[in-house]
Amino acid sequence: MASSTKPARSILPLLAATLFAQACASPPAAESEGSETGSETGDETGDEPPLPMLEGYADLHLHMFAEEAFGGGWFHGQATGPAEVALALCDAGQPGDHARLRDDLAGLFTGCDQATLDEAAAAVFELQALLLLGGAGVSEILGEVPGSKGDTGLHQDRPGGWPELEGWPRWDAIAHQQAWEGWLEQAYESGLRVSVMSAVSFDWLCRALPDENVTRPQCDEMDDVRVQLEQANEFAATHDWVEIALTAEDARRIVSEDKLAMVLSIEASHIFGTQAWLAALDEVYALGVRTLQIVHQLDNRFGGAAPHNTIFQIAQFNESCHIDTDCGLSSDSVTLGFDVDSDCRNVLGLTSEGAALLTEMMDRGMLIDVAHMSEQLTRDVYELAVEREYYPLYASHAHFREIMVPAKATEEKTSPAWIVSMVRETGGMIGLRTAHEEVNTYEPSPVANSCHGSSRSFAQAYDYGRLGLGVSIGLGSDLNGFIQQTRPRFGPYACSASFTEEAACQARDERQTGVGGLGTDFDEWGLGHLGLLDDLIDDLEQLGSDVQPLRRSANDFVVMWERSAGQRSGPASDPSDLNPGGITINPSHAQRRAALPTECDVPYCPASILAGMECRFDVECESGVCAGAGACGQPKGVCE
Ligand SMILES: [Zn+2]
Ligand SMILES: [Zn+2]
Hints:
The chain is an alpha/beta fold and 640 residues long. Helices cover 33% and strands 10% of the residues. It is built from 21 helices and 18 strands. The strands form six sheets. It has a five-stranded parallel β-sheet with strand order 5-8-9-10-12, sandwiched between helices. The protein has a four-stranded parallel β-sheet with strand order 1-2-4-3. Helix 8 (248-256) links the parallel strand 3 (242-244) and strand 4 (260-268). Helix 1 crosses helix 4, helix 3 crosses helix 4 and helix 8 runs antiparallel to helix 20 (553-565). The chain is globular, with a radius of gyration of 24 Å. The termini are far apart. One zinc ion binds at residues 24, 61, 63, 198, 200, 267, 478, 481.
């Protein structure tokens, strides 16, 4: 264990990056080789006439009522109610009732003996910083993360609030409501027909929040889940354009009637807590749940989770007190919490209790979501599915591994082609994360990969999945998921997923020669809220992607569900045509930075900064004049 006694200052950016966790993520799975079996696309329905194609798109992962997640202590804003109440101004500028962590974080770590804790903290500086800084510091750091700047801690720069909505909603909100009912209706009116509403919680985060902020201080994930499920039922009962779908037939009827089929799901790290699982399943089934993830951020009694962000390794360590030295995920040399192999893959797959739970779910025709599963768990679940004549498996919110930039592609929670192959064989589909990241270039895509983190990036992933992997794709928005969304192509945050100077160049080119905006909030907010889902699809379309399959993804979901309950006699499709090629890996940031022109040895983007914005050099400004700048940009000036 390295003795990284870095001072708190240099820890900050890393800690921030790390804490700025994706609360949610994607799927897992097996050994690369594809897993073709047979080939006959045995199909369930002999010679019955095909059912009519349904119109509308599907969002496979939404946390509409997440203000009740984490004991009710993190999100500001409500999913329902009049806008002036649900989206009212928060108490930004005060140490308020949301978006911050408790001061005595060290109190969370009393389960491991002191020597083990010291050893872990010495090896992993994120843990060290958590213990040293406490919640006030960490909350402010979170709020300084590029992208989510100001959305946590005191966040006085972005109070939001109806009707001005300055600051939020925006693509980078991680603590403010993005799934208000008015926005759901907006999405519905523009074609959303299936929405998988996932009741979410994470007890570790709940315990990390100040006591006075949480409504249910016992931090029982299932209590949070119950509240959200009840709210969803109440919402459907009081809105005539939405219904909870309890069967595939229900879903088909609801969509055919041009209404929104809401499907209830659960995403929790300790799903069912310590309850007897069958009774717990009965209970949530009675509340309308028809799909769920058996794991989320942490290993549990049902199976292994895919490790990703260091913060979750710390949370896992908080439970297991395990310091693994087979591979370094949390630092160069160690992995906290998880038991990993020498490739940094979680060794935990499906437990016997997990197998029993999944078997029961399959008996009931419930849909199995493989999101967040460890690779070993995915392999194990796939085996079960194959035994059941290729019972459908889907991933509600996934990143295709091969299209992700190298650092991201190493994460177990990204979905490699061999998992997509399994999904195809079983007749499942992918909910593609509406992510905010730079990705590699998919050469066959008609959309230029020239605005990192925007709908152009989403297009690379979408076209790779559709054309290369040949899998059915819906959206996996994960809105209210404590996670960033697709970035804008215009405005101050345009194309901002890589580094500042490149973003300036990409934004300049987008303005000058790119495809114009939609004229909606999506242009400068990105995917700031649920009502803008369809704008993402519109933007993809005007950029040149074929979005027809996406616009019919509600149909794919219903057909998948029908397969779960119907007769199956083999694989749903032969994935041997799956082609993971055509991807060009982006040069590193250092290489790209080195290719830029320099002034005073500093890289810059020529003629990219608009009038009134801060600048260092004349050559940076569109006008050619950076007024008031000193020598070599010290102090900075303002473009004329
Ligand atoms: Zn989620
Ligand atoms: Zn706030």
